[in-house]
Amino acid sequence: MNLQIEYIRYRRPFSKPLKTRYGTWRFREGVLVRLGDGLGRWGLGEIAPLEGFGSETLEQAETFCREIGGGISPEGVDGIPETLPCCRFAFESALQDLRRQPAGLPVAGPAVLPVAGLISGGTDAVSEAKRLSAQGFRTLKWKVGVRSFARERESFLRLVEAVPPGIRWRLDANGALDFRAAEKWGSFLDGSSVEFFEQPLPPSRTEELLRLAHSFPVPLGLDESVGTLRSLWQWNERGWPGIFVVKPALAGSPRALLSLVQQGGMRVVFSSALETAVGMKHALSVAAAANTGNRAVGWGTSAFFGRDGLSPDWGSIIHGQQIDGLATEPVWAWVTK
Ligand code: MG
Questions:
Q1: Beta bridge partners of 255
Q2: Which positions are annotated as active-site residues?
Q3: What spacing in Å lies between the alpha carbon of 223 and ligand 1's midpoint?
């Protein structure tokens, strides 16, 4: 049976322009898709590529939607190629959404997911860290590789001093360091309780990343290196000894992701791709089902968009019922109005 398809591109302004290594982003753009069964029921999904993670571009995704615009069968969804991982994520999750509706099946059930608080790159990182820890966040993430090592080392010491002991720290370089700079961080962090150090080198530095991971005093995390299911699988085969930071909205099939993570016994941190509530509901349901212990998920992202109503402002814990109750229809209504 062919399912009806509707899709529409959206453009959601960031609350303040986001500086990335690919330039300054003023909008988060993506495509919402919905699949209809012809009986008035619709399932929603979201295509939300991010540059630098190895997925298709938004334009390629739109071309795919246009080409299959007349309808798609459930088998057709399973056949979406791995070169279009964001499309696969969106269509497979829309199909799941559609199938759950008649029975009212829960998405996430009884899961309890701690959330990592993200300290944005502003000048007042110390007061932000204090505010987040006062709000109950027990894991905090801070971006490095932006200023000199010496300045960042001093800033980090101030941050650690400003919050109660027992806070878990994650440092994320977004691939901005070279091997020597990463080694400097390694010597500095020797004996520290940092939870992990994320993506010190660019994804192209495969051998150096592996070498570094075996000598680094705290676990290393891969993020940009493992954007898609294929790259995640490859790094697992290489015997990566650290953490995998996975954004389900970019990875591809949610079912395949879940089985890879569970069968591979991988240490995974699930994370946002700055989706609306539509993609977020499906991505968080993967995180909830994977049950990856007490590692906080990376959905402390509300500051990027302010209160525009298109995604919730999570606190320090996400409960499964909140994921189940996440309203996605208003996002479709906003995009199509
Ligand atoms: Mg990262």
A1: none
A2: 143, 247
A3: 5
